[in-house]
Amino acid sequence: MTPGLLTDRHRYWLLILPALLVMIVFYIWPLVNILGISVTEPEPGLGNYTLLATSHPIQTSFIITFRVAAITTAFCLVLGYIVSYAIYNASQRGVGLMVALVLLPFWISVLIRSFSWIVLLGRSGLVNDALMGMGLIDRPLRLMHNEFGVLIAMVHVMLPFAVLPIMANMKGIDRSFVNAARGLGASEWTAFWQVYFPQTKPGVLSAALLVFVLSLGFYITPALLGGGRVLMISEYITYQIQEFLKWGTGTMLSVTLLVATGVVILAAARFVNLRRAFLERG
Amino acid sequence: MHNRSFFRISMQTGAWLILAFLLLPMLVVIPVSLTDKSYISLPQDGLSLQHYQNYFTSAKWLWATGTSLFIGLAVALLATVLGTAFAIGCWFLSDRMSTIARWVLITPILVPPVVQSLGFYRFWVQLGLIDTYTGVILAHTLLALPYVSISVFAALANLDRRIPQAARSLGASVWTTVISVVVPAAKPGMAAGAVFAFIVSFDEIVGVLFLTVRNVQTLPKMIWQGIQDNIDPTIAAVATVLTVITLAIMVIGALRKS
Q: A56-280, which class in CATH?
């Protein structure tokens, strides 16, 4: 082929297009269809969306979803920060093992980890069995099928997602500022809080965004540990579709969840470098 | 000085406690998988391998495992080819359009699984892809593409732009440059991407729940159904096998690095 017919830029686009087209046709287009269904089924119009203002169960489900996501994020940030800090600021002993322990759960299926929590927290689970065996309680505690069970398992699943951005951020921080502050007489805590912590904010904010967004749409763990009692919006949508075949309601809730997620990401764009948070790492 | 060590010691102790919280719950499946009872419990009168025997002799469990492996490998291959070409093209262009294309490709990371599964379902019905291997492989490939493109892009970040330019100015065509200069540099990213793609597919459950009925039974779907219907210790045996394989791969990976 002569250069006139096909420039280099065209050739690069030939590399890009297959994946991009597959993505647009089989992923983006079906998502657009979801929007279409939400305003056409069962009848054309915004009827489905009025449920957002009138349906108490739907409002409750959104409140639960945001509450669970917010609490999960808060716990993951605190716990993730402590782990990352220990990895990058202590003596080198055990650092490799610590990183491996953070990454291990990452590679183990969410389904299996949720199963582990069911084994632990169930009515006749290991925790209840142990407590009753020791005579501390005489009847099983309700440790799952409530928000407590969902939260503890969610924090377990999401924690690595919080640690990785914070760790990546701390890796690039120069200790000499903290040492200088210490040398000038600041206490360990002051040096940490006023000198070190501000430098880690980008990592913390990336972690917060990632964990919060993933938690908003999370399905498996809440469905398994919530036992139908902690109805987060993803499970609510599934019920509408699979039990009641209400595609209009299900897709309307999907669009709302998607818009809510988008708003959270755009709002975070003021504080978080989205490019670094998603494109460069994901 | 006392203050300093207190701060450090508490951070360090806290970190190990948190890591224990990450690790220990995953290990409970090991003793449970060895229980001599037919329900979830710790071994009581002795250890038993019956649940492993059940997994390794059950046609349904083995078939599901084979299905997941097959789909995972197909997805890894497809996603790696598509995602690598995509990332290389974007790397060369590095303009606004290609950045937008990169954002489009990572949407599956951000869109809630249930929402995208509804989209898949309605479109797959029209295409006649429900309950087919093709349907699942296609859906999983889309979900795996972001991970491949991100890892290849990360690998290419280390490639000096002047090297392909030199190849071009010495007369190599675009395709020769891509194949003999850029692809070798992208290889670590491609390998990581392929592993990611395999795992994304091997673990994926929500899409499979929407897209399959009886024909396609994957391992996660068997586990999901097992948890919903009756909690059978076979799940603990399967979980233990998968956890041990993961651990072994991590240890081998760590040893090879050092």
A: mainly alpha
Note if the bond before B112 is cis, omega within 30 degrees. Answer: no
**Least confident stretch, A64-68, A276-280, B135-139:** A276-280
> From CA B107, how far away is CA B92, in angstroms rounded?
22
Q: Using CB atoms and an 8 Å cut-off, which of residues 73-102 of chain A contact chain B? A: 79, 82-83, 85-87, 89-90, 96, 98, 100-102
Distance, in Å, from the CA atom of A27 to the CA atom of A13, rounded to the nearest integer, reads: 20
Three-class SS state of A40: coil
- The overall pTM is greater than 0.90: yes
The residue extents of the domains of chain A are: 56-280
> Using a CB-CB distance cutoff of 8 angstroms, which residues of chain A are in contact with residue B243?
108, 112
Residue B130: strand, helix, or coil = coil
- Cα A212 from chain centroid? 5
Question: Cβ contacts (< 8 Å) between B18 and chain A: which residues?
Answer: 79, 82-83, 159
pLDDT tens track for B100-133: 999 999 999 999 999 999 999 999 999 999 999 9
CATH of domain B62-247: 1.10.3720.10
- Could you tell me the residue ranges of all domains in chain B? 62-247
CA distance A66 to chain B (A): 14
Q: How many beta carbons lie within 10 A of that of residue B16, not counting itself?
A: 16
Distance CA A266, CA B244 (A): 41
CB contact under 8 Å between B120 and A30, yes or no, is yes
Q: Do B86 and A216 touch (CB under 8 A)?
A: no
What dihedral do alpha carbons A128, A131, A136, A139 form, nearest 10°?
20
| The pLDDT value given to residue A143 | 93
Tens digits of residue pLDDT in A62-81: 999 999 999 999 999 999 99
- Which residue in A74, A26, A207, A193 sits closest to B7, CA to CA? A193
- Contact at 8 Å (CB) between A208 and A78? no
pLDDT, tens only, A154-171: 999 999 999 999 999 998
Average pLDDT over residues B60-69: 96
A37 and chain B: CB distance < 8 Å anywhere? yes
Q: How far apart are alpha carbons B84 and A95 in whole angstroms?
A: 33
Q: A115 vs B116: CB contact, 8 Å cut-off?
A: no
Q: Is the complex ipTM higher than 0.90? A: yes
A91 pLDDT more than 90: no
At A5 the pLDDT is 66
* Cα A82 to Cα B2, B46, B171, distances in angstroms: 20, 40, 54
Q: Taking each helix axis from N to C terminus, what angle separates A110-121 and B2-27, rounded to the nearest 10 degrees?
A: 90
